[in-house]
Amino acid sequence: MKPAPFAYFAPRTLAEALTLVAEHGDAGKLLAGGQSLVPTMNFRLAQPAVLVDLNRVPELAFLEEDGRGGLRIGAMTRHRTLERSSQVARRAPLLHAAMPHIAHVQIRNRGTIGGSLAHADPAAELPAVMVALDARFKLVSERGERWVAAADFYQGLFTTALDPDEILTEVAVPAAAPRTGWAFQEIARRHGDYAIVGVAATVRLDAAGRADQVKLVYLSVGEGPTAAQQAAASLHGQAPTPARIAEAARLAAHADIEPLADIHATVGYRRHLIEVLGERVLTDAFARAGAGA
Question: pTM, whole model, 2 decimals?
């Protein structure tokens, strides 16, 4: 199939792009990598009257350290750039570990971090990773700019805090504190397929070896990135023993999350994966945190 007719604009500056989105509002769509938008347009699931192509706006493509041990990532930075970056591997190893799980190389060559985050697919890896990392997103319009925490950005199925006249321009990933560990795992039928269940974890240990902070964030189990809050709370202030980790994973599967069935998995199977993967990532994350003590 072919997309419905639309007007096309290719701004060369962010200011020009902001003027266009302010003018066209809900009638327009931003084109970043196009790996999600173009297929939906071809099937006419999306029929924007206006397409604003950001690929000629060079100021949106950058990757740099922020001077405090964290990263600043422009919204038009390609997945493949992040996957291959030694800066990402050093400063945000959880993000680095998740990148190869995103679709296939051909898609990662074109897909952008901002496009993926703003699309808010509940089966996407990057939203869950950003929530686990306490990342913040810079949203810009002609009215000004604001920063929104990743955990507050996602509001429902394919729904975010972006206003119609705003563009997500930058992602800020903070530096990890000492004694912090991380892990990422997912299960898919084939590598590159959407995950049946995936999970990102970050943990921090205090000086006594107790869990000082725990984030356990799932993908493909709800309407967006889903934090297992009761599971995390059960570990706070506790020594992360295998028994406590197993109990936290059980809470994630049976108290925090109500997975849905679809053609890929039953509720029971997804619940099983939530528990198994939760236990694995927590075990790995605490081991990394302990090794960095």
Answer: 0.97
